[in-house]
Write a structure and sequence with these properties.
- The complex is a heterodimer of chains A (319) and B (267).
- In chain A, helix 3 (31-62) packs across helix 13, helix 4 (69-102) packs across helix 13 and helix 6 packs across helix 11 (213-223).
- Chain A has one domain.
- Chain A has helices at 7-10, 16-29, 31-62, 69-102, 109-118, 120-151, 154-159, 163-168, 171-197, 203-207, 213-223, 228-263, 269-310.
- Chain A is globular and about 80 Å long.
- Chain A has 319 residues and is an all-alpha fold.
- Chain A contains 13 helices and no strands.
- Helix content of chain A is 81%, strand content 0%.
- Chain A starts with 6 loop residues before the first helix and ends in a 9-residue tail after the last helix.
- With 267 residues, chain B is mostly helical.
- In chain B, strand 1 and strand 2 (16-20) form a beta hairpin.
- The longest helix of chain B has 40 residues, at 24-63.
- Chain B has helices at 24-63, 70-96, 102-107, 121-135, 139-146, 153-158, 178-190, 198-210, 216-233, 245-266; strands spanning 6-10, 16-20, 109-113, 160-164.
- Chain B is 63% helix and 7% strand.
- Chain B is built from 10 helices and 4 strands; from the N terminus they run ββαααβαααβαααα.
- Chain B folds into 2 domains: 6-164, no CATH class; 178-262, no CATH class.
- Classes of the chains: A mainly alpha (319), B mainly alpha (267).
- At the A-B interface, helix 2, helix 12 and helix 13 of A face helix 1, helix 5, helix 8 and helix 9 of B.
Chain lengths: 319, 267
């Protein structure tokens, strides 16, 4: 290395808005690379669901051999797990490409894919662990809600609403409402906080060699320490920017629907089929388009966190 | 690679100025904040108006006069005030705060004219009046996303740009230990500080400013690495005994700063 790349630009931590802009800019400049990986990854994720159709058709047509379901269902589950691992590996490859670009050591699509594919089961493990965590929090939240409802006697109010009792004594009802509202807010709070702390869970695995699923999760947890709400704001802004895209998809779907409605009666099966397939395909396209955006933004968050927490990029010339 | 669009402007005085454009993220953040402020103001205002209207109508009832036309007038006044606040908010702040609203200040962005001058009343008004059109079907968002100059319709018509605020380098106080101060006084005699380039100094300053936010292990590793690199750069045999790498870096920082100050004073 002969000279430092302008340190004022490289090592300064990024503001919230700039993290999102940088992610979008990465996506724009590397659109072809990312979209190819995203398309293939999404097709992998789709495969098990497409397979359901012939399976159902087969059993409804034949009306026999139900015994074979004992084999078909486990096989389908294994296939689904494999396909989702392929999907997560694709997402990891995009994240790796984005990060390597950010640190000025760009990698080829092939080598990023190879790197991620080699670790596909670790990627799957991360996402499975994430799912378990979110499910755990979700169940705790539901149980807490039920306890609050039971404790405040909301059930008896709901199952046996006595308008006279309510109007004469609205106090308990209002109190219960407030309590439930507070609890729901607290649950949302916990979910947002948790997803911010785990936002870059797959990045360490995609970038740092010698990292496994649990280490990667732990890294995300450590890196996001003290930054959870900043990340929540970043994710929210990124979500806001995807709204125009979603709106565009919605408009396309409804225009196509009205065109279809002009040529087919709304009740006809052809209409239902065509309408379903267009919205399905558009949903697919939206998924393919949005995945690289999230991965790029996550890569920027991750590199920014490493710059803040570990001084990534702070380096003097080698003399 | 370049993560942010930049633009070079020629001022009326033929001075070239380079700006970094605001970017969709910062603009979305600013808009999010501004719209919330406007929305809360409007809600408060409508509640107030409803209260006043209720009192007024009640009072007129007691007088027994005919006021059938009044509600529609009150509604008209309310709509007018809503419009004035929704547009006036942006115009007022952009004119008085040199192109910044509360949201833009938070997002550290600023509106300027195409030639780099601050926005005036007419530009701010045009931007604010065209804002609803930009919001229809997110036209403005798409234009900012896809255009090289990140201009929405309001920006094109008013001839404005939204750029990142140019901030002066923050002079956050860097805590320097006594040992480091002592070494800093000796360093110019025992080493060649002129080997250190401004870029190197910037990296050391950056580290010292940000070290408190860093994770402990990563920080000590980085500190050691930077200290070793700095030592090599200034041709020092060893880091003086009994000094941590952080203290050594503080000393280099301080010594370099004092030397620069000396050169500037002599010049």
């Amino acid at each position: 290395m002969t000279a430092n790349p302008n340190p004022q630009n490289l090592v300064q931590p990024l503001d919230v808005g700039n993290v999102v802009s940088a992610g979008i800019q990465l996506y724009r400049t590397h659109f072809q690379q990312y979209i190819g990986i995203s398309l293939i990854a999404t097709l992998w994720a789709l495969l098990p669901f497409l397979l359901i159709i012939p399976i159902i058709l087969f059993y409804t047509a034949v009306q026999a051999y139900y015994g074979t379901l004992g084999l078909v269902i486990p096989a389908w589950i294994v296939l689904t797990i494999y396909c989702s691992a392929k999907y997560f590996a694709g997402a990891g490859a995009i994240a790796r490409l984005a990060f390597t670009t950010l640190v000025n050591q760009p990698e080829s699509v092939e080598s990023a894919k190879r790197y991620a594919d080699f670790r596909m089961w670790s990627f799957w493990n991360i996402n499975f662990l994430l799912l378990l965590m979110y499910l755990g929090v979700y169940f705790v939240a539901v149980i807490a809600l039920l306890i609050v409802l039971a404790a405040t006697g909301a059930f008896s109010l709901l199952t046996n609403p006595d308008p006279f009792a309510l109007t004469s004594n609205p106090g308990p009802l209002i109190l219960t409402g407030l309590f439930v509202l507070l609890l729901v807010l607290a649950i949302v709070f916990v979910f947002v906080w948790l997803s911010s702390r785990l936002a870059v869970a797959d990045l360490p695995l995609a970038v740092e060699s010698g990292s496994n699923a649990t280490q990667s999760l732990g890294r995300s947890w450590n890196l996001t320490h003290k930054s959870a709400w900043r990340i929540a704001l970043i994710l929210f802004i990124a979500f806001l920017i995807t709204i125009p895209l979603q709106a565009l998809a919605q408009i396309l779907v409804s225009t196509f629907d009205s065109i279809l409605a002009a040529s087919f009666p709304r009740e006809s099966p052809t209409f239902a089929l065509l309408s379903f397939s267009t919205s399905y395909i558009l949903g697919l396209v939206a998924g393919v388009l949005v995945l690289p955006l999230w991965q790029a933004i996550k890569a920027v968050i991750y590199s920014d966190l490493r710059s803040r927490r570990e001084g990534l990029g702070l380096k003097l010339r080698d003399s | 690679m370049r993560l942010f669009n930049r633009i070079t402007l020629l001022t009326p005085e033929s001075v070239e100025l380079e700006f970094t454009l605001a970017g969709i993220g910062s603009r979305a953040l600013a808009l999010l904040i501004d719209y919330h402020i406007v929305a809360f103001t409007l809600i408060a205002l409508w509640l107030l108006l409803a209260l006043i209207a209720g009192q007024l109508l009640g009072y007129l009832d007691t007088l027994g006069s005919n006021y059938a036309d009044l509600p529609i007038w009150l509604l008209a006044i309310a709509i007018l005030i809503t419009f004035v606040i929704a547009t006036g908010y942006f115009v007022f702040f952009e004119v008085t705060w040199q192109g910044q609203t509360i949201g833009k200040r938070f997002a550290k962005i600023r509106v300027i004219r195409d030639d780099g001058r601050p926005v005036g009343l007419s530009q701010a008004a045009l931007r604010a009046l065209l804002r609803p059109i930009d919001d229809i079907l997110f036209i403005g968002a798409f234009l900012i996303l896809l255009g090289q100059k990140e201009k929405r319709i309001g920006d094109w018509v008013a001839g404005t740009l939204v750029v990142q605020e140019v901030r002066p380098v923050v002079k956050a106080a860097i805590a320097v230990s006594q040992e480091a101060e002592k070494l800093a006084a000796e360093l110019p005699q025992i080493t060649d500080l002129s080997k250190l380039l401004p870029d190197d100094f910037a990296v050391i300053r950056e580290y010292l400013q940000r070290r408190n936010f860093m994770e402990r292990n990563a920080k000590s590793e980085l500190s050691l690495q930077l200290a070793r690199q700095a030592r090599n750069l200034i041709n020092l045999e060893t880091i003086p005994a009994g000094l941590t790498s952080d203290e050594f870096l503080e000393a280099v920082y301080l010594a370099y700063q004092q030397q620069e100050r000396g050169i500037r004073d002599e010049g």
